[in-house]
Specification:
The chain is of the alpha+beta class. It is built from 5 helices and 8 strands. An 8-stranded antiparallel barrel has the order 1-2-7-5-6-4-3-8. The chain starts with 10 loop residues before the first helix and ends with a strand.
Length: 364
């Protein structure tokens, strides 16, 4: 039996020393014994679990974000679809309104044609009455023969035409004279400006008007500017008694008429009118026939009502009110005056004081 001393074995092979230390295997013995677990093994395992949990949470958040995004797009799509439906409905309503507007225009045209037909029929009726010997001035032609009646009526018609032409010539002469006078007194124009100061609820408010070109409405413009220059409209009033116009009256705040200034030049000689300057909203027209000095502001489009043939209660119903100026600044003040007319009593109307009216040169 051979005994070999273990201490004499190669320490490099076994890596063993005497003492309290445990046996430490060398590299050559790793295939014989498993390496001990690292002290940080469990910490690394916990970190890996945490990372896995974090990934799970981020995945859930990602899905939630996708769901919210899809929901938002769906809501946007539904909103867009609803807007498109509303747009379609609005388009249909606009087409219906356009149709109604066209029907209204056609109806107005038919009404105008009916009025014109009425005037023509009345003229024919007058001619028939004249032919039958009925004359408004008390001339009885019934005893005359048909031939003689025809001759007399023909003479009357001829005289009427001659007098009409003479009146038209006089009107043209008045227009020329008044245009020259306006230019001499107030300047070349062709338009002129007047500022009104009114008292509304104890405060002074202003609005201004611009006249029609003096070359277009010389007689009406002259009549208006003459009244302003003479101070007719200082301390006068607006009467709140109509819904479609705001009327200015030549009477002071105490109700006394300013008759001393109502000379012939403050009133029209004839109701001058042109289709190029009509009674649109915020335009000014002379009241009465022939018209003046009282005037009104149209608070709506009164082209038909105050135009030719619009007021059949006048004897010469085919005439029109003279339209001579338009509000160009201070529309809100005029609107405030209109509101005062809404609750006014027509039989006992309230008034707004016109403190002054004067010509100005506006700053453009």
């Amino acid at each position: 039996m051979v005994v070999i001393n273990r201490s004499s074995l190669d320490k490099a092979q076994f890596g063993c020393i005497y003492g309290g230390d445990a046996l430490k295997p060398t590299n050559s013995s790793q295939n014989l014994r498993q390496r001990p677990l690292s002290p940080t093994f469990f910490d690394e395992s916990q970190s890996w679990n945490k990372g896995r949990t974090t990934k799970k949470r981020s995945g859930v958040l990602s899905w939630l974000l996708r769901i919210v995004t899809v929901g938002a797009f769906y809501l946007l799509y539904m909103t867009y679809s609803e807007l498109e439906e509303r747009k379609t409905e609005l388009s249909i309503m606009q087409e219906d309104f356009q149709g109604l507007n066209e029907n209204l225009i056609v109806t107005k045209g038919e009404l105008k044609s009916s009025e014109q037909l009425f005037v023509e029929l009345k003229q024919k009726l007058d001619d028939v009455r004249l032919q039958n010997g009925v004359f408004d001035d008390g001339v009885d032609l019934s005893n005359l023969t048909e031939e003689l009646r025809s001759e007399v009526s023909g003479d009357i018609v001829s005289r009427q035409k001659a007098l009409t032409n003479r009146v038209l010539d006089l009107q043209e002469t008045i227009k020329i004279l008044h245009m020259k006078e306006v230019i001499e007194r107030f300047g070349q124009g062709p338009t002129f400006f007047v500022e009104f100061a009114v008292s509304i609820e104890g405060r002074t408010k202003y609005f201004s008007v611009e006249t029609a070109p003096v070359t277009l409405m010389p007689h009406a413009v002259h009549t208006f500017l003459h009244a302003v220059d003479e101070g007719l409209w200082n301390d006068t009033v607006f009467l709140h008694k109509n819904k479609h116009i705001l009327q200015a009256a030549p009477q002071n705040s105490k109700g006394k008429s300013k008759v001393e200034l109502r000379d012939s030049e403050a009133r029209l000689v004839f109701p001058e009118y042109t289709a190029d300057y009509t009674h649109s909203k915020y335009s000014l027209g002379f009241a009465g026939r022939p018209g003046g000095p009282a005037f009104y502001i149209n608070i709506s489009d009164n082209t038909q009502t105050h135009g030719p043939g619009g007021q059949t209660h006048h004897v010469l119903y085919e005439e029109a009110d003279a339209c001579f100026a338009k509000v160009f600044r201070g529309h809100s003040v005029v609107d405030a005056l209109v509101k005062l007319s809404e609750n006014s009593n027509k039989k006992n109307p309230s008034v707004t004081i016109i403190k002054s009216a004067k010509m100005i040169t506006p700053k453009r």
